[in-house]
Amino acid sequence: MALAPSIKEQAATVHPVGAAGSLATPVYSPMSVLRGMLEKKDYVAATAFARKAVTQSPTDPAIWNALGLALRAIGEAQSAAQCYQNALAIAPRSAAIWSNLGNALVDSKKFALGLAAHERARALAPDDAKVMYNHGLALAANGSHVASLELLNRTHEMMPDDPNVVWDRARAHLHLGNYARGWQDYEARLRTGHLPPRALPGAPWDGQPYRGKRLLILSEQGFGDAIWVARWLPAVKALGGTLIVEARRELVSLFEQQSFADRIVAKGDSLPDADFHLHQCSLPKLFARSASTISSRPYLRIHEAHARRFAEIFDDRRQGLRVGIVWSGSVTFKGNSDRAQPLQPFLDWFDMPGVRLFSLQKGPPEVELRAIGSERAVDLSLHLKDFADTAAALMHLDLVVMTDSAVAHLAGALGRPVWVLLGKNAHWLWSPETDRTLWYQTMRLFRPKAWGDWRTVFDHAAAALLKLQPTNAISSQTAELEKYIERHEPSEY
Question: Residue 252: which domain range?
Fold first, then answer.
């Protein structure tokens, strides 16, 4: 889902210099300056400062460690790993640095090696809560959620006041389908600082009837999250009362076409008075305590008049399946690189006889299609001003094939056929490891065999798309099919 841009993956706990006990430094030193920069999250300045400091003190493991922390924070995981290795060559028994090395290796998708580094850290400091926490997060990143949950439970016993541990444990529970426990822990996001603080009207709502009162549902996280939780808004409305829903501006028109709220308020506008409030992603805690309570039926609609606006775009009387494509979610989402793909493999695999491609892509990745030209896919981006427009376009498509992003939730919520191409260890919403999901009955999931195995994902989806077409439709286009097969030697993705 990518719940995009969903709450960012909790960065693995980093050990400041001195955490292992042997690397403590005087107050007035390069390390005191670096500590201040790291605490302020001024990672670019910290990187520059540490690079100079390490040339002056090349045998100081603390400075190498600090440089690694700064480099990892700006996304240079492999360079960070080298810094940690340099530090370990000087201080080989530092559990803190072994743990930090494990973090950087996992970031680089070197999971076996990263987990081995975490195991070395645990052997050196078996009772260190932060070392254990990092190991638990690394296991989660590798998809080992049972083992991760065990370590996160133990970490919570040692760090009971840290909401980040509870937040990470929530996602382990949700990956495993432990919904009641997972939703309970999911409330920790309200204490981690993930959500910007603001004054809220009324008291927190506990799910009780609010007849004669006003309830405000608050926007949080990404577009996909808002569309996903909208399934419960009719049930919320049935308990009241006046229901006011805050939504990001791109969702306002879509939500105004539903009947689940008395008023939609654009996020960023002043909040109205209310007797109660609730953050939107707290709704599943009240309405989805177990898998048996989750419905996969469609729950959104688009007004017919709105859908008719797109009729002319699609009505050119050409034959073939109309297939929408989306290759990237929000580029500001930290995990987008693990779920997005370039446009080119979509064209290589799905531009086949009997298929007409339509791009629903929005945001910076739109430029990929413009660079290639629209001969192989119709660019709809100029017609899509918000999610209501995207919903209207979906009503004219036979299928959408896409990577994990908000449009997948929109298609599923509308009951439109959608195939989602997933990376390894995908978002917990797409668990367990099957080709179907509890959340949307018209959605099919395509999964890789290993990290980076996008070729398998595209191959299986392309084969399934070919099978959708009637035999007579394919045989009538034999020449085109032969050309498709001849040129279909795509590079590795």
Answer: 203-293
